[in-house]
Each structure stands twice: as structure tokens, then as C-alpha cells.
Specification:
single chain, 459 residues, alpha/beta, Rossmann fold, seven-stranded mixed beta sheet, 14 helices, 32% helix
């Protein structure tokens, strides 16, 4: 029995781990790697194993850095089953199709402007083929994956449908309990239920995104949003909020709705410019069983916490283009969250040299992404092949992160320490992993390892 980490190894993107047991091969996640375009395309288009030799995929959640390369896997020969929760399956239906559309649109735009561009990794037909392989499983129900391999999904509280995955691996007389946390949510999430406590495991694979940080109080969110909207109104500019279509966008809209209900939201147009965000919000409405009790109560009292006066969702390209010439003040929420693809790139191209623009970055920005360069104060950046001077005001806000911080991760993992023989930290950059490992040792953890990409570890 072994596990080989092929993605999210000492970085925060491209989650993919290959488990081998009983002659079978299982992938935990199959995400898109995001970073430098050439490197990302090479890594996403060429798997380090033969896809047709993989027997099953266990998917922790629908975020593209965890699910986004499934169509490529299927395109190159995978024919096994993809196990996920029902909400994750429903989100993947729209997210993977949107990913195919974005790849085609970005390639077309770059070609029109005389830029060299690689072919899209996959198209909507490949997405359809991948969706036919999905099999939905409820939380907390043990099921057979393959002979000698069983699994259970536990609510991870990260995004709608997200799961920690507990595997029972039996080979001969040996049985190993392997826990893959996926991405761990906050103990007091904005919209969803908190993470389930997870049962004992022998080996734990844990994310470590915010292993070196403590989040600011969530109560700060409302005041920061109110202040930035008020500033945008006063300078008659635009507030651009790059946000993941699933999870982050719904949280931002929910908080803006709270300001509206409190009478603290200035009179300003707010546009969610993302067909995927509109569709994802519809999927959210389909799964109230995933919501926290306060949000379920809010839905009864206020039928649509994801919609209010002055808020509208756009779908068409024409509506999106019109925003680029529309005068402020206005708020535009658009994907992608790390500013690597999608409509937000066009909004940034048109506003980043305008000092009346504010760009609000939410949460973690992976290395080599445009979002990271903006967060680190770059004076000039390239967007869709052209260079721009950064004159917009750049703000960052980490209170909306759907990831547990250092102390929250330690509390989540603490009950597992007594039984676990080994803890593998993934989905984090080395400084964060080192700080988290030091803190976890205070909780009694001893055998902690941060695998490199391609490293095989015996279970």
C-alpha cells in the first residue's frame, strides 16, 4: 500500500494523490494546477501515470484546483467511477462545463490579439463524458469503492458538498485507515455547517493552506465591505472583487445582503458578472441541508439571502462587455478568485490603471498567479498578454477564507493524534507547512512529513 503525491505538494493548487492497494489505483482529487501558463498547461495536459490504469476517483469537493482536470483524465482513457457527494456532483456539472468554456474563450481572445496559445485541455463533450462517471454518495455512509477498499465522506464545511474522506485499505491481513481531509472549513462558517468530527485514522493527509496564519475576526468583514463600498461611491469608481464562483461569491453576496438588511449598504449597483456564479447560487439553493441553522432560518424569513435590491447577475457576453464602459460607482464581483482566467481579467484590463478603482482580493493567492502579484504590490502586471501599470488601490481581506487557519487546523486534527502513525501535510506552501508542523508538535504529533511532488510513501 502506497500513496504518491502528484499535486498540491508544497504548493496550494492542483490537488491529486494516487493511492495504490490490492493492485488497484485510486485518485484522491484530480485538480487543475494553476500558475505560470506554460508550466500549468504542461502539467495539466500530461499525467505522470497512465489514466486508463486508474480504477476510481474519490473527489473531496468541486473547486477547480481539486476537480478541474477530471475531463482531461477521462479524455485520456479513465473509465472508472468518480465518487463524490450529491452537492459536489451538481456543482461539477456546471463548473467543469464553465472551465471548458473559459479555456475556449481565453484561447480565442489570445488568438485574435496575435498571441501564441495552446489548445484547450478539454471541451464540453469531454465534460459530459466525465459527468457520466459520477456516482453520488451521502455523508457518513460507508461504501465499497473496490474489493478491499471502502470509504466514507464526512462534511468538511469548506464549500457546498465538500468532504473529508476516510478510507479503509485492506491488503492481505493488513488494514490501514487513511484520512484525506480535502480542504477543511472554519468551525463557524458563514453559510455552511461546521466540519464533522472525523474518526480515528492510522495515516492522515491534511491540507495546510493557512498553516502559518491566524484569520482576522469574521466580524470585521461587514465593516470592511461597507467602508470599501462607501469609498467607491465617494470617488465614483469601481470596486472589483475577484471571487471564486463557488463558495466565495455566495459569502460576499450574503454579507452584502446583511448590510442591506441593516440599512448600511450605500445605493450602488452590484453586479455578479459570472454565469457560473449565477448557476452555482442556484445549486446552493437546491441544497439547504448543507446550510448552518442561522442561514436556514434566514432563508425562511428572507426567501433569498443571495439576492437583494440593486443586485443583479449577468450571463451574456454582451452584458459583461457593457460593464467595461459603464460609469461608476459600481461593484463588480467576478471570477476567477486568483485572477487567472475568466471575465475578471477583462475587468482588470479595463480598470487597473484607474486610481478610482479598488481591487479587493479575498483569501489565499497561489504562487505565480496574477492575484499573488497584485497582493505583493507589483507595480506592473501582464493581463491576457499585455502589460499594465497598477494604479488601482489593492486591498486584501482574509476574513472570508473558507479554509481553517493554524489554530483551527490544530483543533480539527488534535483528536486524531493518539491513533495516527503519520501525518502528511499537503496543499500548503513550505513556510506555512513548517509553522503548522511546529504548532502540531505542541499537540503531540511526532511523525509529520511534507511530501514533494512525485514522492511515494509506504502506508
Amino acid at each position: 500500500m502506497t500513496i504518491t503525491t502528484w499535486g498540491a505538494a508544497q504548493t496550494v493548487t492542483g490537488s491529486m494523490h494516487l493511492v495504490e492497494c490490492n493492485g488497484y489505483r485510486i485518485l484522491l482529487d484530480c485538480g487543475l494546477y494553476q500558475g505560470r501558463r506554460v508550466e500549468a498547461y504542461e502539467r495539466n495536459s500530461q499525467f505522470p501515470f497512465e489514466p486508463r490504469t486508474v480504477d476510481a476517483v474519490l473527489l473531496s469537493h468541486a473547486h477547480i484546483d481539486h476537480s478541474g482536470n477530471l475531463p482531461t483524465l477521462v479524455k485520456q482513457g479513465f473509465r472508472g467511477t468518480i465518487y463524490a457527494t450529491a452537492a459536489t456532483r451538481d456543482l461539477c456539472t456546471i463548473m467543469l462545463a464553465d472551465s471548458a468554456h473559459i479555456q475556449a474563450s481565453d484561447a480565442l481572445f489570445l488568438r485574435k490579439h496575435g498571441k501564441d496559445v495552446a489548445e484547450p485541455l478539454y471541451d464540453v463533450d469531454d465534460v459530459g463524458a466525465a459527468m457520466e462517471l459520477f456516482h453520488a454518495v451521502p455523508y457518513r455512509r460507508r461504501f465499497v469503492v473496490l474489493p478491499g477498499i471502502e470509504a466514507t465522506f464526512y462534511d468538511a464545511g469548506h464549500i457546498l458538498g465538500s468532504a473529508a474522506i476516510l478510507l479503509w485499505l485492506q491488503e492481505g491481513s493488513r488494514t490501514v485507515r487513511l484520512l484525506f481531509t480535502g480542504d477543511v472549513g472554519r468551525p463557524v462558517p458563514v453559510i455552511l455547517r461546521p466540519p464533522d468530527p472525523v474518526p480515528a485514522a492510522d495515516v492522515v493527509i491534511s491540507e495546510s493552506t493557512y498553516g502559518g496564519k491566524i484569520h482576522e475576526p469574521q466580524e470585521k468583514t461587514l465593516e470592511v465591505l461597507r467602508m470599501l463600498v462607501q469609498r467607491t461611491v465617494s470617488v465614483r469608481g469601481k470596486l472589483i472583487i475577484p471571487a471564486f464562483s463557488v463558495g466565495r461569491t455566495q459569502s460576499v453576496v450574503y454579507y452584502l445582503n446583511q448590510l442591506h438588511l441593516q440599512g448600511k449598504l450605500p445605493d450602488i449597483p452590484i453586479v455578479v458578472d459570472s454565469p457560473l456564479s449565477a448557476s452555482a447560487t442556484h445549486v446552493y439553493r437546491m441544497h439547504p441541508e448543507c446550510f448552518s441553522e442561522p442561514v436556514r432560518r434566514a432563508m425562511l424569513a428572507e426567501p433569498d439571502p443571495f439576492g437583494f435590491e440593486n443586485l443583479r447577475y449577468t450571463r451574456s457576453v454582451e452584458e459583461s462587455k457593457a460593464l467595461n464602459t459603464a460609469r461608476g460607482p459600481m461593484v463588480i464581483i467576478s471570477a476567477s478568485g486568483m485572477c487567472e482566467s475568466g471575465r475578471v481579467l477583462h475587468h482588470l484590463r479595463n480598470t487597473i490603471e484607474d486610481p478610482t478603482t479598488t481591487i479587493l482580493l479575498l483569501g489565499f493567492m497561489a504562487e505565480h498567479t496574477l492575484g499573488r502579484r497584485l497582493a505583493e504590490g507589483a507595480e506592473r502586471v501582464r493581463i491576457l498578454g499585455d502589460e499594465f501599470r497598477v494604479r488601482a488601490v489593492i486591498e486584501t481581506l482574509h476574513t472570508l477564507s473558507a479554509h481553517a487557519d493554524q489554530e483551527e487546523l490544530c483543533q480539527y486534527l488534535a483528536p486524531l493524534q493518539q491513533d495516527a502513525r503519520q501525518l502528511l501535510l499537503v496543499h500548503g506552501e513550505p513556510p506555512a507547512q513548517s509553522l503548522l508542523a511546529d504548532r502540531l508538535r505542541d499537540f503531540g504529533w511526532q511523525h509529520i512529513h511534507c511530501p514533494e511532488r512525485g514522492e511515494t510513501i509506504p502506508l
